[in-house]
C-alpha cells in the first residue's frame, strides 16, 4: 500500500489574503507531493511498507533518516492543511479554551509562546501546540520532526520552513505565524485532536 497526497480541504484561493494561491500551489502541489513520492519510493519492499504513516514516523526515527524525513513531513503536512480553514473564527471552543487558560494563563500567552517557538526555530522546522503527560505545551522541532517522537501528541502545528511563507511574507516569519493563529486556524479541529489526546 502506497501513500497518497491528500486533497486540500478547500480551494487554492480560499485562504487569501493570509495565504495565497501561489503559496498553496507550491507548498501542497509540489513540496508535499515530493515528500509523498519520495516516501513511496523509499519504503517499497521494506519493513515500512504497508503500515500506518504514524508507525513509519515513530519506527524510522533515529534508524532511517531518509524514510523518517519524508514520512514525518508527509504526516506534518497532512495535518497542516486540516489545521487551517477559510473564514476561521478567532474564538476557541470551550473545553480547549479552558485548558489553554489553565496551562498558559491566557490565550494570548499561549499565542506568544507559539510565535516565539516558531521565530526561535533556527532554519527550517515547525512550532507546535502539543499534549504531553496531560499538560498542554508549546514546543519547536527542527526540519520535519514531529512531537510524536518525543512522546507528545500534536494538536496544532505551524510550518516555518521558508517555502511555507516566503512568497507572501518574505522574511517576516513572526507576521506569518501571527496571521496563521489569528486568521487561519481551524480551532474546532484542534479541539477534536485535543479531546483525542486528553
Automatic annotation (TrEMBL):
Domain Manganese/iron superoxide dismutase N-terminal, residue spans: 2-84
Catalyzed chemical reaction(s): 2 superoxide + 2 H(+) = H2O2 + O2
Key word Metal-binding present: yes
Family matches, as InterPro entries: Mn/Fe_SOD, Mn/Fe_SOD_BS, Mn/Fe_SOD_C, Mn/Fe_SOD_N, Mn/Fe_SOD_N_sf, SOD_C_sf
Highest taxon above the source species: Bacteria
Gene3D superfamilies assigned to the protein according to its UniProt record, in alphabetical order: Fe,Mn superoxide dismutase (SOD) domain, Iron/manganese superoxide dismutase, C-terminal domain
Pfam families, sorted: Sod_Fe_C, Sod_Fe_N
Protein's UniProt keywords contain Protein biosynthesis: no
Similarity field: Belongs to the iron/manganese superoxide dismutase family.
Protein name (Swiss-Prot/TrEMBL): Superoxide dismutase
Annotated organism of origin: Bradyrhizobium uaiense
